Structures
1.
Amino acid sequence: MTHVHIIGGGLAGLSAAVDVIGRARVSVYEAGPACGGRARSYYDKALDARIDNGNHLLLSANKASFRYLGLIGAEKTLKGPGAPLFPWFDLSTNLGWTLQLSRGRFPFWAFSGRRRVPGMKLSELAVLARLLKAGPDQTVSEFLGKGMLTRRLLEPFTISALNTPLETGSAALLATIIRETLALGGAACCPWYPSEGLSESFVDPAVAHLRRLQGEVHCGTRISGLDVQDGRVTGLKSGNEIIAVGPEDRVVFAAPSPVARTLLEPHLPGFSAPDAYESIINVHYRLPSPVHARGMLAKVGFVGLVGGVAEWVYLKGAILSVTVSAANRYAARDNDELIATIWSEIRQAVGPVLIETLPKAVPPVRLVCEKRATFAATPAQDRLRPQARTGLDNLALAGDWTQTGFPSTIEGAIRSGSEAIRVLGLL
């Protein structure tokens, strides 16, 4: 039986493994102590709680992600309102509202004062049509206007989707997201997120599924080099060991971009990969007991913020979890000051709709900064992304940094794993 060796146990590698298990012998090699990469959960001793290293929101249009969850039997581990509902709060005006998209393609929501972005004008919708025609060298800031639709929806949506500032972010990558979500109508935009945690939804069920089907998952196993002969990979170096790659075997390289540049450049003339990155900050506040919200926040479980440091606040039992995208811009700020500022934003936006009273003092907290959370989604970096197919007969690439057409997202990572298996002729 063909043996597929998968280097990297993040979502791209797990996706590749899940797609090919049953048709081939599978071995996954993950350098870290657990699989999941930048989408995993772990126990934090200081908070005495299990937390995610980042918050991720899926939309109902993310077909590859839902297919993957179905294959590993985890489709019921997500929760959401079951409708295209998005609560928002503008910190500068102390105004809260809920964006309620129409399920069909025609934007009926934009004609309703109760459902649309407050203060927006219908003419602003033309921004979306212009964005869909964006060229590969254009940035988002060339398209966005000055109206309330831009300020209260498109700007925070863009920063979250691209994890890159508007001034440098790729308009073409944003257009891909819009084409597969907003342009398809609200039915494609229903939000979903893990009921428990990222690992409980995306990682642990996948590893269990692979092992049930006799797949091998080796954590703490770093692949430090490749043996290449006659245009194909013949061995993988791990410490003092050489893992043989047989004549019928295949290799999926699904490790992060910096590792790819180190290991693959000697074997692939002209190889390129993104080399500039953006960070994401996640701040987790631990309360003495679980919090419960009223109204729309109770139904949806999260709220988007406008005009502050944080972009999203998630209610997770006794944890209030906050995401700050494109966080390189805050690199010079003191962590304690950031934590205090974000806590004040939470109290302003979320406090009034909680049944419990939030304390003025900052509760126990953990700030997690993923310094290389994503590649910088700029036109220049997008041009550096390689295709899945390589110049070596039995090697394919996977990862959200490969040319998926998407920015660095869970959906892009999962699609890339499937694409790698396809180009190897196994799907």
2.
Amino acid sequence: MYRVMVVEDEPPLIRDIRYEIERNSSLFRVTATAINGADALRKLEEETPDVLFTDIRMPVMDGLELIKAIRQKDPELPFVILSGYRDFDYAKEALKYQAYDYLLKPVSPDDVRKVLAKLGAMLEGRKEQRKRALLLSALHGEQLRDESDGLFADRSLGLLLALCGAASGAEASPADLESELATLTTPGTTLRVWSGKTSSEKIVIVDEDRDGDGEIAEREQLAKSLQRLLEARSGTTVNVAIGAPVARLGDIAGSLGSLRDLLRRRAEHGVSKLILENETPDASEAGSPVTILTNERLISLRSMVHLHQKSLFKAELSSLIGEWLSAQLPVPDFTALVKRTLHAVGKGYWRRDVDIDSVVDESMESVTPNEIWSDSLIERLEVALFVENSISRDSPEGVVSKLDDYLKANSHRNFDPKELASGIGLTAPYLSKLFKQYRGMPLIEYLAYLKIEKAKQLIRSDPELLAKEIGEMLRFTDPFYFSRLFKKFEGCSPSEYRKRLEKR
């Protein structure tokens, strides 16, 4: 419910306006009245309305003076001006001070209804923007004021974290997912969707009435729908972790971290799963023939392919094929699993002129079942898929060159140097040493340098982008740290850099 203050020096008119407001909208209630501008300012010290209806001509302090005084303290409070025909020019002057609308006296029920409908839509939009901003800040682990929880009073917040088996999950935009999932919710439930750390990760916050009937069942049903939508768009398997409900915004970041860890440990390639937080894994899962390629292992394989570490990749894929065959998968299932793996691991890094599915089919046709146990299939896949390059990718210079290309293409992401190093069979200190030798700075510093170069590119390409927006796009959770880092490399702040460009 939105609170309304009416400022009018005629009590009968106050009564009429209160009646029309409360009769025509369940969203608004008149909670305070004042007989002139000075009286309103006194009452505003204790009362905080969401909307103010004020007459123009009043003794002591008129409506225009009241608007000027309030605008100095609150630039967003919406005003509705009440005026007679003879005061119309005066009302137009008030509109210059960002009054929201005006009503001509005598006020008609139809006019009140229309103004309230517009006000309601505007205030609801503001509230939604505020909620989204708070939830996004909470997801990033930012410190929030205690009163922020008031917007979610009597609400239960639950997270769904989806992980696509391939980066093509980016094809499913958060807005599209949100729109489609919203049609499946019950009254009193709101969904908000964001992309996560990577394009293959989607975050959904389910905002519902606390202690609502069927709360857990509905969240699981929404998780299944999310899974189906992402599978249809990405053409790959999707794991969804379902978080326990939280009552405080400050607990959201912890829940997200728990779900990410849950997916890292239990997400499986080759099968779609729903994983409940705090759920004890079913003992039967341990013997499942598809619990053999975890998300962690998949990331390691991707690094090997992206950095052209053929020997490491061949050894790891040989081990996987051995495990799949020992599980006695039917040949069609085995073939499909190999295809899904190659799509997920090397999308965008295999040779451009090959069709992965055809390569697998031809390789399978040319070997006998017994030969699959040997390296024959791996050799055929290697020849067909890997891009040859004049620089030896196993040489130190080759490692740095390929990793450099990969980091530049993904400069918007946050990388862990240890994970990058382990993915290509090196230690983090040695990889950092190689970068200092061939790029003039340690790896961790080079990662920061690439982000600032990307930030400069974004500023040049879109002068309207704010520094905060650019920082968020490059995964900086602290805008002040982003500004300091920019100044370290460029010698000026992002805004100063923009001004330099404008002067050229």
3.
Amino acid sequence: MSQPPHPALTPGRLEQALGSIDPTSARVFRLHAVEGHDYGAISRITGLSMQEVERHLAKALAALARALEDPSS
């Protein structure tokens, strides 16, 4: 059962948060969260190692968490 999106996570805030990080991290997030690729597929698509995929995804998720914590974003 999936949870509804966080009410503060609007498309604009998502793009703003992703815009605050490097393009590779944003791309990895989109490939995983939006397009549904697993880490192995992302590694093949981007040429990044699995560890790099994990690091970039963690960076993107941290940026989203900060955006959700800051009501002024």
4.
Amino acid sequence: MEEVRNEVQNEEPETGKENKSKSERFIRLAEGRVTKARMAISRLSYLSNTGNYEYTPQQVEQMFSVLEQELAEVKSGFMKTAKEEKKFSFQ
């Protein structure tokens, strides 16, 4: 978790913050963070080289289970904001 905090602190400082919309900031930050995440995930494939590493199917399953769970939690955070309010009416 400390690495995530450091990455956020190391991101480009907000210059001209008042001139940037929330949407523009989201796009700028999301593009960089998704690119970094994709590169990190891609590097996991190097661990599949059995000439250099030894692992069990259980270890592989555990590794991917944690990644899938984290991704699902992050996605659910975005889905909460997109939900419509359910309103009751007799009409």
